[in-house]
Design a protein that fits this description.
Elements (H helix, E strand, L loop, with lengths): L13 H21 L10 H8 L4 E6 L5 H14 L10 H4 L5 E6 L2 H13 L4 E6 L2 E6 L12 H4 E2 L4 E8 L2 E15 L14 E5 L4 H12 L4 E6 L10 H12 L5 E6 L9 H8 L4 H7 L20 E4 L4 E3 L1 E3 L10 E3 L7 E4 L12 E7 L6 E8 L5 E9 L3 H15 L2 E7 L1 H4 L11 H8 L4 E2 L5 H10 L10 E3 L4 H7 L8 E2 L5 E2 L8 H12 L3 H6 L7 H4 L11
Parallel strand pairs: 1-9, 1-10, 2-7, 2-8, 8-9, 16-19, 18-21, 19-20
Antiparallel strand pairs: 3-4, 5-6, 6-7, 11-12, 11-15, 13-14, 16-17, 17-18, 22-23
Helix pairs in contact: 14-16
């Protein structure tokens, strides 16, 4: 024990000072070791958003080593103990429920539970590695004073695989409000083993079987419990994951109430040696990187527009592809800020296709519509700037008839102040029979409603051109096409638009056909690219398609291009 009577360290001898300093360091280390939970800080903005989520079903898609399991475990630990880190103290009021029953389901009892999960909870165990310049990792998350009698042996029941925790009032850590229980199971157990009890939180570490998921839903139903799924998408076709899309991922993407999905990146984890991560990733394909580092679904690895991203990434102009980059310590200007981990080039730029920008009527706008008899008519607007770069400013859909659709589109154009100079329509649907009038096609219907459009070009060249525009341009150091965040449907589909499995035609040539799903807005962008719109042409022919809300009548037919 440090001599509290000693207040003047200058009076100590060198030996006494050294001894007391060593004792102080030991006490500080022990305090942090036994109260690590209080010192927890989310590793990134995404991690903070995950902790702030109140979703009933929370999916966390993470790369290998991204810290996704840590996040999920932390949610369970905070709920069970009532102890919230200083960095998350503001969440206690909305998340604390008092003593709770929790369940954590891991991949394997032998390899995962005892070797990985339990050490993450034990306050005397160190997780991570020591690194020059500071620690990387943490002590176990369960505070010593959150154990029964401050003893792991009294809290842990190995036969039942349950951990009892003292639950405290977050506002008064000295007040005990009850006792929580954390039960541990594995995915290789029978789902019938999980068919009992009510749980306030169930965490599933990695991909469960559908039967185990159904049982998890049933176990949380009566107490309005939460389900937290943390996983890396499998690239093994023998592991079924399609049901996860239907049950969780797509519901979150469609903003179904109570569902959220977040991706967390391996590259954001400060407890990893990111140079080693980059070295490993340099040998992987873009698809493998997306799965293993960014937690993106393998289902989307066969994307038609793989460069499109709504997350900041890096592009190496020397390699000609997305890359992993680190800060260039020798940078003189902003142009040489990054260095490619693959080839060492400083010809590296940050890029993100989704960005805020303001609409302007000084830039001509192209309108594309895809009519449909059984689902809403879909449409989007794209601005063309003086450099002929494209800015997707808005998208929309209307379940009404062509007259209602015209009203909806004009309202959006008025609100945003768009100068629409050109309108095109899906040629396949345009010439098909409308649902309301015999012998009349959709193009005629929209013409009569006052929304006159040309037929778009359906050539596959538009897809190739779009992929070129998505790649950062060496002259601009940015892509040539940008998407406003309000265009949620366009963003959603561009990330999910994929090829069917490759097939052979009669001449044994490989053919690729897009899947008939999430294709509406990417197809409209294909039509747009086939038009090859330019600022000069559209600006010089602004009367070709007059602004309908100004003219108050159907637009004039387009004149032939020179």
């Amino acid at each position: 024990m440090i001599d509290e009577a000693v207040t003047d360290f200058s009076s100590l001898s060198d030996e006494q000072f050294t001894a007391q300093l060593a004792e102080l360091v030991e006490l500080a280390q022990r305090e942090r070791q036994e109260n690590q939970l209080l010192h927890y800080t989310p590793v990134s903005e995404t991690a903070l958003k995950i902790h702030e989520s109140k979703a009933r079903v929370l999916g966390i898609g993470g790369g290998n080593g991204s810290g996704k399991s840590e996040l999920a475990i932390m949610e369970v630990v905070m709920a069970a103990t009532g102890v919230f880190p200083e960095s998350l103290k503001h969440l206690a009021a909305q998340k604390f429920r008092g003593p709770v029953n929790c369940r954590i389901i891991v991949q394997s009892l032998t390899t995962t539970l005892y070797n990985i999960i339990l050490p993450k909870l034990q306050h005397w165990k160190w997780s991570g590695i020591d690194a020059p310049g500071g620690e990387r990792g943490h002590w176990g998350w369960i505070p010593k004073w959150s154990l029964i009698g401050s003893s792991w042996e009294r809290s842990w029941h190995d036969k039942l695989r349950t951990l009892r925790c003292v639950c405290r009032d977050p506002d008064d850590i000295n007040r005990v409000v009850g006792e929580s229980t954390i039960q541990f199971m594995s995915h290789d157990q029978e789902s019938s083993d999980a068919a009992s009890g009510d749980f306030h939180i169930i965490m599933l570490d990695e991909i469960p079987k559908l039967a185990m998921w159904r049982e998890t839903e049933a176990r949380t139903m009566r107490v309005a419990g939460r389900i937290i799924l943390s996983m890396t998408w499998s690239d093994d076709p023998a592991i079924p994951v399609d049901w996860i899309f239907d049950e969780v991922y797509d519901k979150a993407a469609d903003k179904v109430d109570g569902f959220e999905w977040h991706n967390i990146y391996t590259t954001d984890n400060p407890n990893l040696d990111q140079r080693a991560v980059a070295a490993q990733a340099s040998a992987w394909s873009i698809e493998t990187r997306n799965v293993r580092l960014f937690g993106q679904p393998i289902r989307f690895s066969n994307r038609i527009h793989p460069t499109f991203t709504d997350q900041t990434q890096h592009w190496c102009f020397t390699c000609g592809k997305t890359t992993f980059a680190r800060e260039n310590l020798e940078a003189v200007t902003s142009m040489d800020r990054w260095r490619c981990d693959g080839c060492g080039s400083i010809q590296v730029a940050e890029f993100n296709h989704v960005k805020e920008f303001s609409a302007t009527d000084k830039w001509p706008c192209v309108f594309v519509i895809d009519p449909h008899p059984r689902k809403p008519h879909m449409y989007l607007w794209t601005l063309v700037d003086p450099s002929d770069d494209l800015w997707v400013v808005a998208d929309g859909a209307c379940a009404g008839d062509p007259v209602e659709t015209r009203k909806d589109t004009l309202a959006i154009e008025r609100t945003l102040g768009l100068n629409v100079c050109h309108r095109i329509m899906d040629p396949n649907m345009a010439l098909s029979s409308s649902s309301s009038r015999r012998g009349v096609n959709w193009r005629d219907e929209f013409d009569d409603a006052g929304l006159r459009c040309q037929l778009a070009d359906d050539s596959h060249v538009g897809r190739e051109r779009l992929n070129q525009y998505l790649k950062p341009d060496p002259g601009r150091w940015q892509p040539r096409i940008h998407v406003h965040p309000r265009c949620a449907s366009t963003i959603h589909q561009l990330k999910r638009y994929v090829w069917q499995d490759r097939k052979l035609d009669s001449d044994r040539a490989v053919i690729q056909v897009p899947k008939d799903k999430d294709d509406d807005y990417p197809t409209m962008l294909k039509y747009l690219m086939n038009e090859a719109p330019t600022f000069r042409f559209l600006s010089g022919s602004g009367t070709v398609f007059s602004r309908l809300h100004q003219a108050g009548r159907p637009a004039n037919e387009a004149r032939p291009r020179p």
